[in-house]
Amino acid sequence: MPTSESLETYTQQKLEKLASKFSSIIHSDVFFKVEKDPKGNGRICEIELSLAGPRIFASSNEKNFELAVKNTISDLEKQLKKRKGTVKPYI
Questions:
Q1: 5-85 has which CATH code?
Q2: Neighbour-count burial of 59, counting CB atoms closer than 10 A to its CB (0-12 exposed, 13-18 middle, 19+ buried)
Q3: Residue 25 pLDDT > 60
Q4: Amino acid 42: pLDDT
């Protein structure tokens, strides 16, 4: 879906902060979707991160895209912290 410049810069800033904390991030794919939802939600943000090893994926469905991006990044950060605790560097 076509997005606004403000949404793109907001998402890029959030991903750059995440990449500065976790240097193992190679690439990210961001997808925005709009669905009809009777609860008032329907703005979906899906982010897939490429890392060494399996990819990490998170998605959230919220009232607006900024909130969806924020929650998706939060979910990805939790997954990255968990993975960072289990992965050991080679010495």
A1: 3.30.160.100
A2: middle
A3: yes
A4: 87
Q: Do strands 56-62 and 43-50 pair parallel, antiparallel, or not at all (unpaired)?
A: antiparallel
Give the mean model confidence (pLDDT) for residues 35-46: 86
Band the pLDDT of 54: cuts 50, 70, 90: confident
* Residue ranges covered by each domain of the chain: 5-85
CA-nearest of 89, 38, 33, 82 to 56 is 82
73, containing H or E segment: helix 65-86
Q: How far is it, in rounded angstroms, from Cα 91 to Cα 83?
A: 18
Average pLDDT of the chain is 87
